[in-house]
Design goal:
By secondary structure, the chain is of the alpha+beta class. It is built from 7 helices and 7 strands, in the order ααββαββααββααβ. Helix content is 34%, strand content 23%.
């Protein structure tokens, strides 16, 4: 068991990652004095006064549906295949293999056959905007062509094993 002091803004950010910016629900959790996130259980002295909650919530980012997808800022690409997820770091997705003119990400964004991810929401746990696109069955051949451009043999192998269903791109602010 590990004990540490957590700033209020960090605690509220963890709570918001589950509840969204639902002030009454967050206030109830703060007054209860405990919260479970994954395998972590957080406890604190129950809050009597939650008057500063509105100010803390104003400090946290809101969704930005108009935000364009900026390829140079993508931190991670997550490919979903059923319950399995394969994470591709942004710098790996932008890297080119030897003697290849394109990168995985470059092919994805310039291909007319692979779906362009649309804005989904701000993810407080990841501290990034999420852009998501389903991968239709008719896009499997272009998907595998893009996968072949990844410089990591381990990632290429992991992405060939299962049929992908969606791609999510995380872009920090």
């Amino acid at each position: 068991m590990q004990h540490r002091e957590t700033p209020l803004v960090e605690l509220v950010t963890w709570i918001v990652s589950v509840t969204g910016k639902d002030a009454p629900r967050i206030e109830e959790i703060l007054k209860r004095g405990s919260f479970v996130l994954g395998l972590s259980r957080m406890r604190w002295e129950a809050a009597d006064d939650t008057g500063c909650l509105t100010e803390v919530l104003k400090m946290l980012p809101d969704d930005w549906p108009e935000r364009p997808l900026e390829a140079g800022k993508i931190r991670e690409i997550e490919v979903s295949a059923g319950t399995r997820k394969v994470a591709i770091p942004g710098e790996v997705a932008r890297a080119r293999r030897w003697f290849r003119a394109e990168s995985f990400l470059g092919r994805w964004l310039s291909s007319g056959t692979l779906p362009l991810p649309g804005y989904e929401r701000y993810d407080y746990r990841e501290q990034a905007d999420r852009f998501r696109a389903p991968i239709p069955a008719n896009a499997m051949a272009p998907f595998h062509e893009a996968v072949d451009l990844l410089p990591s043999a381990a990632l290429r192998g992991a992405l060939r094993v299962h049929a992908p269903t969606a791609v999510t791109m995380l872009v920090p602010r």
